[in-house]
Amino acid sequence: MTIGPNIQAFFDEPTHTVTYLVSDPATGQAAVIDPVLDYDHPSGEVDTRSLATVLAAAEAGGLTVVWALETHVHADHLSGAPYIKLRTGAAIGIGEHVRDVQRIFRPIFNAEDVKADGSDFDKLFADGERFGIGALEVEVLHTPGHTPADVSYRIGDAVFVGDTLFMPDYGTARADFPGGDARQLYRSIRKLLDLPPETRLFLCHDYKAPGRDAYCWETTVQDQRKTSVHVHDGVTEDAFVKMRTERDATLSAPALLIPSIQVNIRAGKFPPAEANGVSYLMIPVKPKVGD
Ligand SMILES: [Fe+2]
């Protein structure tokens, strides 16, 4: 008999992100998925209080954190993976196509220290690769579209889907970041929705759909196929691409896009310190041509 993972969710309201602590009941080994570093953009202040909450829960449960897993290079929060690694010795894993994301953003941020070979991370996962969290087997599913490198982690009857699907009443992730592709996103979503109907899907974000008062981050394949406002059964690829493209054209940049990308392509590390010992995040200025 397969025993499923224990799952604890930690919702970060400022960034609407869910961090998961996933553990194997048999061995007590655990993974932290999509850890959030607290970051105040106006002041540049960084804090680890949210990460401390996750690690305290791990300690209370007698768990050994062996992985810090990213579903993708996030554009809305700074990764706390290095702090998880520092405190526990966990290895930082992400999909192997992170190299493409690094290649795209390295010139934009003049990030010469990023080698764009994925070596900032400890482990790069290929599509279909399997690894363990104790006795739990994790299957990596490459689910690109939101970014080229998105992966979902399937553990027993649970899948951590990153930014592909949101709650059925909210829809799907945007696909307009550099390297994003609405058609790919549709195909990745169909791949997830081909899993057994009772499969539990754990989301990376929730924003409360209009009319809903509580944050939610767990749904099922069945629920998505029946009621997703964007991808219920019967929505064709072309119809989805049209909807997604039109909707993305109305969305503004996430508040933490620029700091997040610079840190997250470095596996959560800040850019190398300048001669004065201080690390800086940069803003590429884009003058309007004309006038
Ligand atoms: Fe994202």
UniProtKB/TrEMBL annotation:
This is MBL fold metallo-hydrolase. PANTHER family: PERSULFIDE DIOXYGENASE ETHE1, PERSULFIDE DIOXYGENASE ETHE1, MITOCHONDRIAL. It holds the Pfam family Lactamase_B. Keywords: Hydrolase, Metal-binding. SMART domains: Lactamase_B. GO terms for molecular function: hydrolase activity; metal ion binding; sulfur dioxygenase activity. One of its GO terms (biological process) is hydrogen sulfide metabolic process.
